Amino acid sequence: MLKLIDNSTAFYGTGLALQRKLFKIRSGQYAGRIAAVYPSSPSVIVLSYADPPYISWSSPQQVVTDSADYPAGCWMDSNGNIYLAYTAETSLNLMHKKLSFADGGWTAGNAATIYNAGSNYYPSLFKDHYGRLWVSWTRVSGSDYTINVKSSVDDGVSWEFGPDDEGTILVTGQSSAFSRLEYLPTYLYCFYCVDGTSLAYRKIEMSGSLWLSEAAIFSGTGISDSFHTSVSDDLRIALAFASDGELYYKDFDGAIWSGNILIDSEVASAPIVRHNGSTAFVFYCKQIGPNQNQLNYAVKNGAEFASPSSVSGSLAACDRVICYRPEASAMYYDRSVEAADDSAADVYHPDSGGLLKDSGDALFLGQFEKFSRIYITLSTPGSGGTVTWHYWDGADWKNFVPVSGQYNFDSSPARIRLWEDSNDIPSDWQSSVIAGHSKFWIKVVVSSDFVTAPVGTQITAAVELQYMTAL
Fold first, then answer.
1. Exposed e or buried b for every residue in 181-203, given b needs 16+ CB within 10 A?
2. Are 186 and 205 in contact (CB under 8 A)?
């Protein structure tokens, strides 16, 4: 299911994958309720929630109105309270708010300053079993990028020795720094990447007061914020990360790290690792073309991972792309392979030399399941012609106009929203057989001749995934 909750104008959308922003109430009257915290605009952070089956979401509730256009980090405790750390606009101070949960809703408290010097970004939060809040974040001062950590013993009202206290500096980089807090009894771990080249961690014993020395995990290139951690039911820390476009996995039993397991050797980013019991699932973006990222996942079976798969066929390369020309000796021409990659000018019907040209020509886009997005890249945009859009309702081809507006293959690239989301896809859309293939088809038909025929480079149902989050 693809459900549109909101349209954000913030630069980072939902925020970095390594930050927590999506939560589920685990017990009580509201068990199963999911809350999402995200920026609706560069300065406003909102909260929206839904109950199973998560089709209807609440109207976004403003919880912060003075945020800088940088991603926030959150934590939900066992009582459903959400703790929110964010960067303040203008001052770039690091701020905190508690969103108290009662009677099924959340109420935002007063903002407290965690740290008030330098520029502060990318917070990660954690609440331990003693009730202490912890925050790690990136502080930029001059040419230094440091990972700092502070704690609060009064639910975020105050932080250690006050706003002027920088806390503990764990590491210093020169170009970038990102961090994530994770707990494995009896230590709190701070995982971090500095300068995009090294993954490491430091840890503190929950009854102690000093962070232990750095332990290196991996050295590579292009890591930046593309890493994520999770703890399994059998108490192992899983780490997924992308280095130079390749996706890797390691895990840790508290004493020994496993070797590096390669999951995907092609262009991958923004990994998220999650556990079902002790089984690790890694979700990630796989680039299949410019501005097109397919959401993939891989499952760990024993010591290795099964071959990655697409999370949803409705957000991937098209199963079939077929050009149709009624006057040609071979009317149907399958360009599925060519449409899946970004090789230039190879999606066309050989009789006309175009993707579409004369009245009656058609383009069929098919998937195994219903879909609502199309991304079209043309090597030659069309001119002078018009098209109509159709889906099969079981008896006839039913005309519709994409919710994003009429598109006549006259510009490139083009992101077409057929419908708003999965909930708005017509219930009468039926699969049908075209050129021997049973799919859910979108049929695009030329209604007036093109002067210049469009020629295709790539056509997919993928979206521009950049920033993800997970429960």
1. bbbbeebbbbbbbbbbbbbbbbb
2. yes
What CATH code is assigned to 315-460? Answer: 2.60.120
Beta bridge partners of 456: 347, 378
Residue 295 CA to its chain's centroid (Å): 8
Spell out where 302-436 has E strands. Answer: 304-305, 309-310, 320-324, 332-334, 362-367, 373-380, 386-392, 397-400, 414-417, 432-434
| Sequence-distant (≥ 6) Cβ neighbours of residue 232 within 8 angstroms | 238, 251, 275, 277, 278, 279, 280
Q: Which two tokens stand for residue 340?
A: 């899946």
Q: What is the Cα–Cα distance from 272 to 226, expressed in whole angstroms?
A: 9
Q: Which two tokens stand for residue 185?
A: 């009894």
Amino acid in position 66: D
Cα 423–chain centre separation = 20
CATH entry 2.120.10.10 includes domain 22-314: yes
pTM, rounded to two decimals:
0.90
The backbone torsions φ and ψ at residue 313, rounded to the nearest 5 degrees and listed phi first, read -65, -15
**Residue among 115, 100, 125, 130 at smallest CA distance from 18:** 125
Domain boundaries, the chain: 22-314, 315-460
E strand or H helix that includes residue 339: helix 336-340
Tokens 């915290």 label which residue? 37
> Residue 130's CB: how many other CB atoms inside 10 A?
9
Nearest 10 degrees: Cα torsion 287, 292, 295, 299: -20
* Of residues 453, 370, 355, 456, the one with CA closest to residue 418: 370
Under 8 Å between Cβ of 108 and 99: yes
Which residues neighbour 160 within 8 Å (Cβ) at sequence distance 6 or greater? 150, 151, 152, 167
CA 252 to chain CA mean position, Å: 25
Residues with Cβ < 8 Å from 204, sequence gap 6 or more?
Answer: 187, 188, 210, 211, 212
Per-residue pLDDT of the chain (471 residues), as tens digits, is 678 888 899 999 888 999 999 999 999 999 999 999 999 999 999 999 999 999 999 999 999 999 999 999 999 999 999 999 999 999 999 999 999 999 999 999 999 999 999 999 999 999 999 999 999 999 999 999 999 999 999 999 999 999 999 999 999 999 999 999 999 999 999 999 999 999 999 999 999 999 999 999 999 999 999 999 999 999 999 999 999 989 999 999 999 999 999 999 987 788 999 999 999 999 998 888 888 888 899 999 888 999 999 888 788 899 999 999 999 999 999 999 999 999 999 999 999 999 999 999 999 999 999 999 999 999 999 999 999 999 999 999 999 999 999 999 999 999 999 999 888 999 999 999 999 999 999 999 999 999 999 999 999 998 877 777 887
